[in-house]
Amino acid sequence: MSVADLVTIRDLVLDSTRSFGGVEIDDVEVVEQVGPYGEPSLLIRMLAQPRRESPSWAEDRLRLSQSIRDDLLRVGESRYPVLAMFSPKEWPSRSQ
Amino acid sequence: MIDSRRLLVVADDLVSRAKVGAPSQTALRRAISTAYYAIFNHIVRSAADTLVGAKHRKSPRYALIYRAFEHARMRQVSELLDKHTLGGKARNALGMSEPLPDVRDIATAFANLQEWRHWADYDPAGTISRSDAKEMVAQAELAIRKLDSLPIEERKNLLVFMMTSSRL
What we know:
The complex is a heterodimer. Chain A is of the alpha+beta class. Chain A is built from two helices and three strands, in the order H-E-E-H-E.
């Protein structure tokens, strides 16, 4: 699968995040966007329960991004994933 | 000389300002852009300091190294390094088949920040959350710290790869 459809990617991301300890992701939305140099990338919007004040959260989030990237590459999806996280309060206005 | 850590203080301050009342998209977007510039500047400066020497900062060769970096190439390299198992080009450049965790973290943070910076500066659509802006500043700070703590040979390999990959 070289260009997985966005629904498949959403399911895959949900599976990735479920197996990623400590991060509670309630919903995921995937949209394709154009990156800085014209290449397509994947904007992965996540509805996450706030837990970002942890000192290790920046590193945890890098690991989550890497875990998703590895899963995508495993199915032949090379578009770069970019994570955006929204609290339940922010989620309704994510695409405004 | 631009100080990348000072840039991070500015970025952090912009996020803090956005806390008052409704989050200001202007302040959050400027925070992300500044955080990206902090990591970009730190990589470039580290390369020039490591390869030419900090005591030669006013020399023409220092300026040449400083200007040799291109955003697009650095992004390509970051994607090549943001993998569990490296491909041939990255393997040759780093001399290993899997990136050190800190090297991969730097690559992931750089690619993320560049993508976010592009969004923040050029895309009027969508809302940037305060937590994401804060997170991007934290990722830039973490990547800068990790770059500084890499063993010297690994740091040199990474910096040279980021500077020259398309010519290898």
